[in-house]
From TrEMBL:
Single Gene Ontology MF annotation: metal ion binding
Cofactor: Mg(2+)
InterPro entries cross-referenced by the UniProt entry: HAD-like_sf (IPR036412), HAD_sf (IPR023214), OTSB-like (IPR044651), Trehalose_PPase (IPR003337)
UniProt superkingdom: Bacteria
Protein name per the record: Trehalose 6-phosphate phosphatase
Amino acid sequence: MSGVRKPPALDLPEGQWALFLDIDGTLLEHASHPNAVFVSEELRGLLGNIEQRLGGALAFITGRSVLAVDRLFQPLKLRAAGLYGLEHRLTPDGPVGVADTPADIAALADAIEAELDDGQVYIERKGPILAIHTRAAPHLLARATDLVERALAQLPQGYRVIPGNAGVELMPLEAVKGGAIRRFMAIPPFAGRRPVFLGDDTSDENGFEAINEARGISVRVKPRGPTAATYALENVAETIAWLETNFEVSRVS
Ligand SMILES: O=P(O)(O)OC[C@H]1O[C@H](O[C@H]2O[C@H](CO)[C@@H](O)[C@H](O)[C@H]2O)[C@H](O)[C@@H](O)[C@@H]1O
Ligand SMILES: [Mg+2]
């Protein structure tokens, strides 16, 4: 595991922690399609219990939209930053704040879809963000990446391309997980607490940097190379077990 250490046992009372969680690849095993992931009752119960024990200081920090997250975890609703921080819901039942869309990329999505006319590539349209999923057609990843990089030239400045997990995403520069974490850390019930963030992907690295600046605990799940995270866990199962152990929550039967 790239020599990164396992995270330590948490040594402060639970009221002093703030917990930020990536979803795909961290809490959920990857599936062939974004809508094919499985959320167990145990996981819903665990997250609900942790949210209560932390006095609400738990938020999802994800590339999915908040609406997509709510559909997956229903009836559980948590604080969340969606679309890498372009959306945020600061209280579980509050409104979803949405950042401006710098450009309409729907037409771009159509063009890329037509170019990759293969039936195996799924283009996820997330408003200002485009995710090209090549999990079912790995041989098309390089072509998809090339197309998206060339599409950058057609957009106003302020977009970037980042590798996804079995795909590639095009997004505004301000879509960064570190910004989302800092926003939560400035308000109750997060402010003044020591933050923990668990994530598994390139897009989580910026979040790890924000956590490290705040002297928190950054944990990369299944690191595949260099990471800014201080600690690492092997996989989803180990992540869930670590959360259960460290937040002293018993499994929901
Ligand atoms: O920030 P995350 O919560 O980890 O979300 C990242 C992206 O996750 C989803 O795509 C990934 O997971 C899918 C389900 O396992 C998989 O089919 C796909 O190949 C992965 O890239 C989601 O669809 C994206 O919108 C998120 O940005
Ligand atoms: Mg992830």
